[in-house]
Write a structure and sequence with these properties.
- The complex is a heterodimer.
- Chain A has four helices and three strands; from the N terminus they run αβααββα.
- Chain A is an alpha+beta fold.
- In chain A, strands 1-3-2 form a three-stranded antiparallel sheet.
- In chain A, a hairpin with a 7-residue loop joins strand 2 (62-67) and strand 3.
- In chain B, strand 1 and strand 2 (12-17) form a beta hairpin.
- Classes of the chains: A alpha+beta, B alpha+beta.
- Chains A and B meet through helix 1 and helix 3 of A and helix 2 and helix 3 of B.
């Protein structure tokens, strides 16, 4: 297992968590989600995100609707479902646990 | 100048340069291939297309604006290259491809034969090369010949897929992309040993190419020979079928026409004859076609899935050969048993000089005096009501042991059983009469009741004692069989002259 692979695995887990977090603050279309993730330097290229969004939607965590755009093609607006909210709560918890666990491990050294 | 075309991306129309279009199309295809095994592939790709449309649009550049290759590259850098679409959850389909032998043209000195062998057998390439070189010097050039043959036989690994198959690597999209990438950045690492080999290789290369050309030339010659042989056989076959008569009988009688079937009906049933002809044709024809095909393959080296074709033609050949064999056996069965009847002609004891008169074909007969087909001593004569089978009797003259002239008529015929053979003997329609000292014989005899030909024969044996004579008319000479006793008159025919039997033979010189 290479370091790159480990990093990618870590990022990928966090990424799903982050998408749900962004949508908690309000519905957003995919480009907006991407822009936010880019700003926080969680992703470098956009391509990574589309499979994730589709999978989360198919898992029932997200729903989407089409909205006309004044600029260009109609856009997919994603929103959290109730299931998605529950999932986010669980992820919040486990994230905290993880951070605490790592922090305590690091402090012991 | 660049060609521009219109594309519809996610419902928005853009003008796009042709090179930009190909780049984008290629990109989308690669992405599609990445997700090919996912259910949601369609959706993901359409999402991505939509994003591409949005990105082009964001530049405020729909309508009159023309998308260039730079725009496409920019979009790709935003979206990421196909390998960035990593998706560890979804296992990519990976096939353990069977390892196959290819020439490793990337690591070649001459044609990549040694490196290919090394790859296939997991041996260090240098060892293979040294072995080949040693074989070339010690084995009187065996190595070179082996090398040349392998060069021709083993295909080169050109596509990434083939290169992976060559190394027996796991086979999926990622590995192919990796293969492409490494090829681009490949730097040949070479040790001193490799360099020496390399230098040698360059010299061998020239020689190898020369050898290759010669080998190809030889193969082409073999190919042409095969094709010509096949064609020659087929032409011979066709000529034999349709003009066989011109060659095999003096009156010209093609095998496939009305007369020929009538003729054959004297031997066997027409259906059996047709079966024989067709199966015999196939038995000869199919190998000819296969030979020509092999020749064409050698010359043009085309690949085709010809297994089914070859197998089915071989199968047809076997069936034809078996049917032919059975037919021949069935006909042969009708000749299994032979019977003969012997009749002695009475009142020959007092004759001093025997006159043998073979009656020519009567003037008023409907038989055409020229035989349509003559093989040995049987002939087919055409008559007004078709073709009839007539057979010539044979006349044999020997010295008699006793003091009297003796005449013996022997009729022979075959059949499936002894009974049938006897019946066939009965049906021989041969007449003879002795009037005074003249023996009248029929020049030809027919078969009663439309009997088929079953080896019917009539032999007239004439025994002349020493001192007594015999005369033959012209027609009798025609049916005379050669023997020691008649050697003096066989070639110097003197019709109607009396020949006196000497100690051993007719007209013997006194010593």
């Amino acid at each position: 297992m290479s370091l790159e692979n480990t990093k990618a695995q870590m990022r990928k887990g966090v990424l799903e968590y982050c998408i749900l977090s962004i949508l908690q603050e309000g519905d957003a279309y995919s480009s907006a989600i991407i822009n936010k993730l880019k700003e926080s330097e969680l992703i470098v290229v956009e391509g990574t995100l589309y499979p994730l969004l589709t999978r989360q939607k198919n898992a029932g965590l997200l729903s989407y609707r089409w909205e006309e755009s004044t600029q260009g093609p109609p856009r997919k607006y994603y929103s959290l479902t109730d299931e998605g909210r529950e999932a986010l709560d669980e992820l919040d918890k486990s994230w905290k646990e993880l951070v605490d666990a790592v922090a305590s491990l690091r402090n012991e050294k | 100048m660049k060609k521009t075309q219109k594309v519809n991306i996610s419902g928005v129309v853009f003008n796009i340069d042709e090179d930009a279009y190909h780049c984008l199309d290629n990109y989308l295809n690669q992405i599609s291939a990445r997700f090919a095994n996912l259910e949601e592939a369609q959706e993901i790709v359409s999402d991505i297309e939509q994003r591409i449309a949005e990105l082009f649009h964001e530049k405020g550049k729909s309508g009159e604006y023309i998308v260039t290759i730079d725009d496409v590259n920019e979009v790709i850098s935003i979206l990421g290259s196909p390998s960035d679409y990593s998706d560890t959850d979804a296992d990519q389909p990976s096939f353990k491809r069977k390892k196959r032998m290819y020439r490793d043209v990337d690591n070649s000195i001459i044609a990549g034969v040694c490196s290919g062998l090394g790859n296939y057998f997991n041996i260090d390439i240098s060892i293979v090369r040294v072995l080949i070189v040693i074989l070339s010097f010690i084995g009187f050039g065996t190595g070179l010949i082996v090398y040349g043959l392998l060069w021709i036989i083993i295909p080169p690994a050109i596509t990434p897929t083939q290169k992976l198959e060559m190394q027996g690597q796991e086979f999926n999209l990622g590995s192919i992309e990796h293969k492409i990438a490494t090829k681009v950045n490949q730097v040949k690492e070479s040790s001193l040993f490799d360099k020496i080999i390399n230098g040698l290789g360059k010299i061998v290369l020239m020689f190898g190419k020369f050898l290759y050309i010669i080998l190809r030339a030889v193969l082409i010659i073999i190919g042409i020979t095969l094709i010509l042989t096949g064609i020659a056989f087929i032409v011979t076959l066709l000529v034999a079928l349709f003009h066989g008569g011109d060659i095999f009988s003096y009156n010209g009688l093609p095998l496939f026409n009305d007369i020929s079937t009538v003729i054959m009906s004297h031997f066997t049933s027409v259906s059996m004859f047709v079966t024989l002809a067709i199966t015999a044709f196939l038995v000869v024809f199919i190998p000819c076609v296969l030979i020509i095909y092999a020749g064409l393959r050698i010359i043009f080296r085309f690949k085709s899935s010809d297994k089914a074709l070859v197998l089915s033609s071989v199968a047809i050949w076997f069936v034809a050969a078996i049917v032919f064999g059975i037919s021949v056996a069935l006909i042969a069965k009708d000749f299994a048993r032979e019977r003969k009847s012997i009749t002695y002609v009475d009142n020959t004891a007092q004759i001093e000089n025997l006159h043998i008169v073979t009656l020519p074909l009567p003037e008023n007969t409907d038989i055409n005096p020229h035989a349509a087909l003559t093989i040995d001593d049987f002939s087919l004569y055409t008559s007004d009501d078709g073709v009839k089978l007539y057979i010539e009797p044979e006349l044999h003259i020997y010295r008699a042991n006793g003091d009297n002239i003796k005449v013996e008529i022997v009729k022979k015929a075959s059949g499936a059983t002894k009974l049938i053979a006897s019946e066939n003997v009965e049906r021989i329609d041969f007449d003879y009469t002795l009037r005074g000292d003249t023996l009248f014989l029929d020049q030809i005899f027919g078969l009663k009741d439309y009997s088929k030909f079953r080896g019917q024969e009539v032999d007239v044996y004439v025994y002349i004692p020493k001192g007594k004579g015999v005369s033959l008319n012209q027609e009798s000479y025609n049916i005379l069989d050669y023997s020691w006793s008649v050697s003096n008159i066989y070639y110097n025919q003197k019709p109607d002259e009396i020949n006196i039997m000497g100690k051993n033979e007719l007209n013997e010189d006194e010593e």
